[in-house]
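go over whats below:
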Amino acid sequence: MSIGIVLGLGAVGTLAAWSDTATATSGTFTTGKLDIKVGNPAVDNNPTAFSTTLTNPAIFAGDTVAAGLLVSNAAGSVANTYTISVVASNTALGDLLDSSVRTGLPSGNSCGGTLIGSVSGLGTSKQFSAQGRLLPVNGSDQLCISVTMRAGQAQPTPAATGTVTYTITAMSS
């Protein structure tokens, strides 16, 4: 019986455990803001950005018009990369048109900067071939956009009328 008491006391003595904890707290997290804008003044949506500059009331085969478009990241807090897509509101007209995007400002009805991308046939939405233009915080990118009616195209009957919409899509980099 004394052996059982000794063993029992020994078992009780081994139930004690040591423990300790430590914590570490991070700094404050704040979400970044992705905010790409177009035009001057810079706005989120500018449906009339080209209404007076990228227009031609009587476009014909071989004719080109060009206009500048400023893309900016002045209101964002993170760098981004962006892509550009284009579509015409009238498929019959859009199928006759090509568009290109270059760096810089237009000179008359042409763009002379570095070619960023071009698409043929604007009847369906198309993305320009150059992907991911980098736009740093407080940065801007001056673009020159041109629209050309391909040479050798017959005028549609009746005459086709429509607009061309450029969509800039930004993603954080």
User: Anything to note?
Assistant: The mean pLDDT is 84. Residues 2-13 form the longest helix (12 residues). Residues 9 and 106 are 94 Å apart (CA to CA).
